[in-house]
Structure formats: C-alpha cells, structure tokens
Write a structure and sequence with these properties.
Layout: E1 19-24, E2 33-37, E3 43-46, H1 51-60, H2 62-65, H3 76-81, H4 84-95, E4 104-108, H5 114-122, E5 127-131, E6 147-149, H6 155-158, E7 161-167, H7 176-184, E8 187-198, E9 216-217, H8 220-229, E10 232-236, E11 244-251, H9 261-272, H10 278-294, H11 296-318, E12 329-331, E13 334-336, H12 341-354, E14 358-363, H13 365-373, H14 375-382, E15 386-389, H15 392-400, H16 411-425, E16 429-433, H17 436-449, E17 457-459, H18 468-478, E18 482-486, H19 491-503, E19 507-510, H20 514-518, H21 527-531, H22 535-542, H23 544-572
Parallel strand pairs: 4-5, 4-7, 5-6, 7-8, 14-15, 14-19, 16-17, 16-18, 18-19
Antiparallel strand pairs: 1-2, 2-3, 3-9, 8-11, 10-11, 12-13
Helix pairs in contact: 4-5, 10-11, 12-16, 13-14, 13-23, 14-19, 22-23
Length: 573
C-alpha cells in the first residue's frame, strides 16, 4: 500500500502538540504510525494511504482482513448471522421517531443496504438515498427497498435531509472534520446527523480496530471535540452497542466539551496491554494462511457465528428492561431470561395493561438445535423481548453449564395463564394458526372454561404466503390485546419478526402446537412426565413415525453440544 506524505497534525482536532507514537498498524503491515493525541484523547494513523491505494485495499484486501463480510451468497442467512436487522432496528429506535412523515434520509456508507431495508420496512413513507461506492455489493441487502444512490459530491445538491446516517464511517474518513462539516450543511432545519463509531476507549477495541483504513480512533472526548469543531450539538449519546459510541447531532450551540482526562485514562488503559506479543503475531500468521487455504468465505462463516453472538451480547448490555429482570444469559448460542412462570405472566399482563409492546419467545431442544444451522431463526429468537426455557432438557442443560434457570416456562402453560388473565380483566385475545376445526375446538374449550372471555379474532394458519398481509391486516383491525401464533418453527418466528412491530398488539407470543392440545387433536403428557422431562416421550408414543427420527437425532445432538460446552467450561476453570 502506498502512503501519502505525513500529516503532522491530529486528524480529529488539528493539534500539533501532545502527539505521541504508541505503535504501528499491524493487520495489513503498512508501517503506519499509531499516534495518541493528548489534546482530544483520540488516536490516528499517519501517514494516510494514497486515495488509489485505499480504493485498491477496499476492493481486493478488505474482506481478506475482515472475513466476516466475505460470503459465497449474500442471502438472508448471511445478514441474520451478522444480526443486521437487530442492529438496524436498535439504531432506528433512537432517531427514526423524530423524522417527519415523508421525510428524506441519506445514509453515507450504506454497505450492503440491510439497514436501509429495515428503515423502508418500518417507514414506507420515507425517501431513501445513499452514498456507497461499492457498486458490486451495495444492493445485496436491500430486499427490494427503493434507494437512490449518488456520489458524495452530489449530496449538497440533493439535500436537504431530515436525517443523515454515518454508521462506522467517520473512522474511515481521511478528513472527518471536512466530512461532518459538509454533511451538516445538507440538513433540514430540524434534521440530525446520526453517528456510530468504534470506541477506542473500550477494552475490546485495541489493536483489532487498527488497520490501514481506520484512520481515526475515536473516544468519547474525541468525538465530542470533532462535533464541536463543526458546530454540532449533541442530543443523544447513549450507546446502542457496547464497545461503540453513538451520537445524534443537530446544528446549534455545541456547548462546553468536558475534560479529556477520563477519556485519556480509558484510552491508555485499553491500550496498555495491547502489546504486539509473539502469540498475537502467530495468530495473525495463522489467519492469513487460513484465508489462503480455505478461502475468506468459509472462514467468514465461522467468524460470523462468533460475531453474531458477540453482537447479541453487545445489544443486550445497552437494552432497556425492567429493573427486576435478571441479566440475560446465553445457552449454546441462544439467549435465555431466567424468569419464573409467575414473573413471566406478570410481564405479559403488565405489557397488556400499559400497552407497552412485548414479544415473547421460548427455547426448546428442537429449536436450539435448529438454530445452530439456521442463523435467521437464531436472530429472530434473540430479537424477542422475553425468552423462556420451554422444556426440562434446556433447563437441565443450562444448569449444568452454570446458568440460573429457576424453572421451565412452557408456551402452553403461559398461553393458558394469559388467557385466564384476559377473562378476568376483560382483555380480548387473538389466535392465529392451527387447522380450522382444531382452532374452533380450542376456542370452544376456552369459552367453556372462561365464560366471560371474548376473543377479538381467531384465524386458522392454513393460508398461502400471498394472503399473509391480508390476514395480518384483519388481525390488526380486530385490535386484540394479545396474540398467540400457533405455527411450527421457524415459520412463526419469521412471521412475528415481520409483523409484531407494526401490529400494535401489546403482547405477542408463539405457541407452536399448543392449540392442538387445547383443541383435542393431541393429548398432553401427564404431569409427572412433564416434571421429569419426559413430555417428548409421550408425544413420540402418539406420533412415532413423524417424530421418531427427529427426537433421536435432535436429542443426540443436544447431548453432544451440552457435553462439549461443559468440557470447555471445565478446561477454562
């Protein structure tokens, strides 16, 4: 990579004093110096690459360094493994409500376009524009969303915009001050610049974020100084993802910038242990050879799995939730909330009473095994607000790995509890799924048990995909207080991921085959079998041909995964 002449001044704040070299770029091996600025508490690489070299790096080498973005096909599974939809939704909740109807959005550095697809689904009224020089990949994640692409030079003429998005872009800019200044002039009077960058003061950052294209390393104080230089005021600074910095910036008085001392201390602490040890050099060498031997696409699939789980944890760390809920735990790649059946019911009834949306999901052995090879299902489950352990196998396995799971909370029990609460409080539930005759029998069962119960709507689940929108429109028009989706996995998880945010129903949950039990099509195991984790055996006895191979394979795979995780945990301790 060819390098331009040295800058001699901090790329973030322009200071020429208190600049100290603390290392060099390692991932690509360009020889660039990493400089710590004592004035703004940021870091920067010097000298920068020449424009032609940087373009060549992005085209030919970027996905060899960051193999998580390399794939044979950029399909739904690829974007789900990166948690693209979850991240985009979490970000959108912080800025999208302020955008007026018919507003105009510009994303600079839109990547694959997955974030724009989420915005289009959430707000079809908005006009979407984007700057993304990677013509080959920029439409891979749009899923049909209408987006106008334009070069950066044409942004001023295309404005004004109600929101301009820069997610993990500023650290790549050769002149971040000029870029922010240029974009701030393109804002509508009430518009906002929405920025997210890696946090150089975060312990996870260190050398993994330093490569030839990350020209600036921003801390809290450095990003504030950068905003102040271009006359932007900070309206929101709460991170969306742990390990990142988030800002919603508007034109106005920037205000006083706080002392850089805390940010400098965080920066120095994060980088103090980031020495270039022999072990790190060996790992870099092994990765380069792995890319050569198996290709970046295959290596990327493995890295995306790790990155997806890390993203789930980063989102969870910043997610708002009731103070009395225990911390979310992860079991074999899927999250679990350790709430009791009573606490789960309380969360559901609170959601209905306060009209605060709550999506419930459950995890059983079959779903957990399926999620190992289905990243879309894994993302859909992880997107739920409350996730319960449905089945003693999950409870026992989680406890063996040291997780706190007080009891199993089955979908069928929770459905019965919530419907009983509906009868007591005059709430109107809805059911979607099952065969028409079975659904009618289940409805009659609940009416007989709760004479005061009134259903908002009950609709069978046997409709073709092209009728889905019409069915969901009928359910929305009925205005139920809660919705139970009685469909198999992963169909119900996919349907809820598409619709639960737009339905306006306070409490929504998938219940699988529960309606078949209430409708008399399938008998449930005796209580003693349920308590001893033998409900699967009772179901197998009823449908041996359909369930036999599934249970044998699934239970074997589950046992192997649990034992491997247990051994790994023992070796660590």
């Amino acid at each position: 990579m060819r390098l331009a002449p040295p800058l001699g001044a901090c790329r973030i704040c322009g200071a020429t004093t208190e600049q100290s070299v603390i290392g060099r770029e390692r991932l690509v091996g360009t020889g660039q110096r990493l400089i710590r600025c004592g004035v703004c508490a940021g870091g920067w690489l010097d000298p920068p690459p020449t424009p032609g070299s940087l373009t060549q790096f992005y085209t030919n080498h970027y996905r060899h360094v960051f193999t998580a973005e390399a794939a044979e096909t950029y399909d739904a599974a690829f974007f789900a493994s990166l948690r693209a939809r979850r991240v985009a939704l979490a970000r959108a909740q912080r800025w999208l409500p302020a955008v007026p109807p018919g507003g105009r959005i510009l994303e600079v550095g839109s990547g694959f376009g997955a974030g724009l697809a989420v915005i289009a689904a959430e707000r079809p009224d908005l006009e979407l524009l984007a700057v993304e020089p990677d013509v080959t990949h920029r439409t891979q994640g749009l899923t049909g969303a209408a987006v106008t692409f334009l070069p950066l030079e044409a942004v001023a003429a295309a404005g004004p915009f109600d929101a301009i998005l820069l997610f993990h872009v500023l650290e790549h800019a050769e002149d971040p001050v000029a870029l922010l200044a240029q974009l701030s002039t393109c804002l509508a009077p009430a518009g906002a610049l929405v920025v997210e960058v890696p946090d150089a003061g975060s312990p996870w950052g260190a050398w993994s974020t330093v490569h030839a294209a990350h020209l600036s390393l921003l801390t809290d104080a450095a990003l504030d100084r950068l905003s102040q230089r271009v006359g932007l005021a900070i309206e929101d600074r709460q991170p969306v993802l742990t390990g990142t910095l988030f800002r919603r910036l508007v034109r106005g008085e920037a205000g006083a910038v706080p002392s850089v001392a805390p940010a400098l201390a965080a920066f120095d602490q994060a980088w103090a242990g980031a020495r270039d040890t022999g072990g790190q050099r060996v790992r870099r060498w092994m990765k380069r050879w792995a890319v050569r031997l198996v290709g970046p696409q295959r290596l990327g699939a493995w890295q995306r799995r790790r990155l997806g789980e890390a993203t789930d944890r980063a989102l969870e760390a910043e997610r708002a939730k009731p103070a009395d809920w225990p911390p979310r735990q992860w079991f074999l790649g899927l999250p679990l909330d350790g709430l009791t059946r009573e606490a789960t019911l309380a969360a559901a009834t609170t959601a209905i009473r306060t009209r605060a949306p709550l999506l419930h999901a459950d995890v059983n052995v079959a779903k957990l095994i399926q999620a190992q090879t289905d990243p879309v299902l894994a993302e859909d489950v992880a997107s739920a607000d409350l996730i319960s352990a449905d089945g003693m196998g999950v409870v026992w396995g989680a406890r063996l790995l040291g997780l706190t799971v007080p009891e199993r909370v089955t979908g069928i029990d929770l459905m019965a509890d919530v419907i009983a609460a509906c009868a007591r409080h005059g709430w109107r539930p809805a059911i979607l799924g099952a065969e028409p005759a079975v659904l009618a029998a289940a409805e009659a069962h609940f009416r007989a048990k709760h004479p005061a119960l009134e259903f908002a709507i009950c609709h069978h689940g046997y409709f073709p995909p092209d009728e889905e929108a019409a069915v969901m429109a009928r359910i929305q028009a009925a205005k139920p207080d809660c919705l139970f989706v009685a469909m198999p996995s992963p169909r119900k998880e996919r349907l809820l991921a598409r619709w639960h945010r737009t339905l306006g129903i306070p409490f929504v949950m998938g219940v699988g085959g529960s309606v078949d039990v209430f409708g008399g099509k399938v008998r449930r195991a005796p209580l003693w079998m349920q308590r001893h984790g033998l409900e699967w055996a009772y179901r197998f006895a009823q449908e041996p041909r359909r369930l036999g191979s599934r249970y044998v394979v699934t239970n074997f795979c589950f046992a192997v995964l649990v034992m491997m995780a247990w051994l790994k945990r023992r070796l660590r301790t």
